[in-house]
Amino acid sequence: MKLFEFEAKEILRERGLATPRGRVASNPAEAAAIARELGKPVAIKAQILVAGRGKAGGIVFADDPQSAQAAAAELLGKTVKGCRVDKVLVEEKLEIADQFYASVTIDRQARRYVALASADGGVDIEQVAAQSATAIARHRIDPDTGFPQSEAESLVKRIPRISQQMLESVREKKADPQLEADISAFGRVLAMLFQVALEYDAELVEINPLAKVASGTFVAADARIILDDNALFRHPAFGDRSLTRADDTPREAEARRQDLTYVDLSGDIGIVGNGAGLVMATMDLIRLHGGEPANFLDIGGGAQAEIISKGLKFVMAKPEVKAVLINVLGGITRCDEVARGVIEALDGAGTKKPIAIRMMGTNEEEGTRMLKEAGVTVYADMETAANEIMRLKQRQVN
């Protein structure tokens, strides 16, 4: 689950990190009032759950309340990077002296958190990595020892620009108190990000840019936090958000409400299977045969007839779907339950589409018999089923 920028900043602010003064507005008049209270130039920032909004016109600067109101009126209701803007964050425009990048994320290969730091803040970190892998300092965090500030400061010292400044200080045999203070402050920020990641079961806690303002203070100019969906039961404050995501299509949002594992796609062949790997392999097979999947739907292991029926009816109800391919390997999923669910769906669906089924495994013979009696053919292998669904789809098109 992605948090909005203003939510991420509130979490960081509660832990002592400076953030720009400001508040959220849901209409242009509120934006003007906030700008008036701040009494200085402001940034009007679209609150959407995708990165890169600045380049897409989702951040606008305003010098006074009138222009803030006009900027908010322009952004609110607008679609930025495929997301509708319903709120804007109105906050003071910072006078940035320098900017950095700081984050804690998960290194899945190493099975632990990794802290990242760079002197190239304010741009996509992927762009920085593409230009120079050495521009980003990394530290894999030992889960047994954590990430104390001393280790965080050691990471900061490995940022190329900072290490160069330290080397110059040694050569000149002259201490640089400001550099030492910056390293300490940056280290505190990184150590705090790790604590936030632990506390919130976060997959990513990112500040980009981490701005150093004229006074020397480090400020989170922008922030992102992504929580692990599987840990939301530990965070009831966000529980009511688990069924709604700003980047969902209307059908994905409805599928989430129905507890279906569903992804909307642009093709015209519906896909139903059990297990994400099998569903993806089925989608690849359809593409290999020249078709395009209309969706991804995983009924999961051990699915009962009710879930199978609900999922199949949901897929058939999509107007663009011309035919549906069902691919099931029955381990803990029983083929007779699959057959029962398919028959219920075909009997009760308001919209019916041609289907092809490949099904094998537990209670396969019973499930095949049930479907045959209902007039539904079960195909022996994926290739045959894929060929048949392409034929059925073409017949629908013609």
Could you explain the architecture of this structure?
- The protein has helices spanning 5-14, 28-38, 65-75, 125-131, 149-157, 160-171, 177-199, 250-257, 276-288, 305-316, 335-348, 364-373, 382-397; strands at residues 22-25, 42-46, 59-62, 79-80, 83-84, 88-92, 96-107, 112-118, 136-140, 202-213, 218-220, 223-227, 261-264, 269-273, 295-298, 323-330, 355-361, 378-379.
- Helix 2 runs antiparallel to helix 3 (65-75), helix 5 packs across helix 7 and helix 11 packs parallel to helix 12.
- It has 3 domains: 21-92, ATP-grasp fold, A domain (Dna Ligase, domain 1, 2-Layer Sandwich); 96-240, 2-Layer Sandwich (D-amino Acid Aminotransferase, Chain A, domain 1), CATH 3.30.470.20; 250-397, Succinyl-CoA synthetase domains (Rossmann fold, 3-Layer(aba) Sandwich).
- The two termini are 43 Å apart.
- It contains 13 helices and 18 strands.
- The protein is of the alpha+beta class.
- The longest helix is centred in the middle third of the chain and has 23 residues, at 177-199.
In short:
By secondary structure, the protein is of the alpha+beta class. It is built from 13 helices and 18 strands.
